[in-house]
Amino acid sequence: MHGVPWSRLAWDPIDSQRNRLSARLEWSRKDLLDIFPFPHRIELTATLSPEALTLETTLIAGPDGPVPVSFGFHPYFGLPDLPRAKWQLGLPTMHRLLLDGRGIPSGAEEPWNRFDSELGEHSFDDGFALLEATPSFSLAGGCRRITVEFLAGYPYAQIFAPNDQEFVAIEPMTAPTSALTSGRGLRVVAPRERFEAAFRVRVEAQTGITSAA
């Protein structure tokens, strides 16, 4: 929801348990519809366990018309006490989205082989179409492994890891960048129908991972 001040987003809690919280956002006010003119409801559930955080998102279309689905999350990760160059990044085999002169996906794709290596000086700012239904991505080092599992509803990913910054973003996406204008990869939810998406971030201790010198 880029460009929307958080003060406009009135999330209402609908369920609260010891390790689980759900909230609802009604996209029906005029100021919100001026930005995205498709009435709908979003329900977001966060479930926390000792080793993982699962985020489930449900979109329910309003009764008067279909709703295009184009959202994603931007989780950023880093590993303490270990130089970025030593971080081990694991990405599955995918198709890389080729860009036009404006940096927007052109509709063309190219095969992109699995990456499982130390970051070194590698830099990423790339969108991908996924080939697996439930792919996983990982960042490991310093006896710790972070795994991002795309569980449902996210057929695209953005990987952002500039080589001059100490982070890696592994971003689940329901559609490629600019899908609302191009229509490429864009799904539409019929009136009163539901769309569901989920991903999980898992953190595990692991032996045998490179540590800082």
Order of strands across the main sheet: 1-2-3-4-17-13-12-7-10
Q: How is the main sheet built?
A: 9 strands, antiparallel
Number of strands: 17
Proportion of beta-strand residues: over 45%
Give the overall average pLDDT. 93
H/E order of the elements? EEHEEEEEEEEEEEEEHEE
Structural class: mainly beta
Shape: globular
**Contiguous uncertain segments of 5+ residues:** 209-213
Question: What is the radius of gyration?
Answer: 19 Å
Write a compact overview of the structure shown:
By secondary structure, this protein is mainly beta.
Notes on the protein architecture:
The chain has 213 residues and is mainly β. The protein has one domain: Beta-galactosidase, Chain A, domain 5, CATH 2.70.98.10. Helix content is 4%, strand content 51%. It contains 2 helices and 17 strands. The longest helix has 4 residues. It is globular, with a radius of gyration of 19 Å. The C terminus is likely disordered.
Please give a handful of descriptors for the protein shown.
213 residues; mainly beta; Beta-galactosidase, Chain A, domain 5; 9-stranded antiparallel beta sheet; 6-stranded antiparallel beta sheet; 2 helices; 51% strand; globular; disordered C terminus
Write the layout of secondary structure elements.
Layout (H helix, E strand, L loop, with lengths): L11 E6 L2 E8 L2 H4 L6 E9 L3 E10 L5 E3 L6 E2 L10 E4 L2 E6 L5 E8 L2 E4 L5 E7 L5 E6 L2 E9 L3 E6 L6 E6 L5 H4 L4 E3 L4 E12 L8
Antiparallel strand pairs: 1-2, 2-3, 3-4, 4-17, 5-16, 6-15, 7-10, 7-12, 8-9, 8-11, 11-14, 12-13, 13-17, 14-15
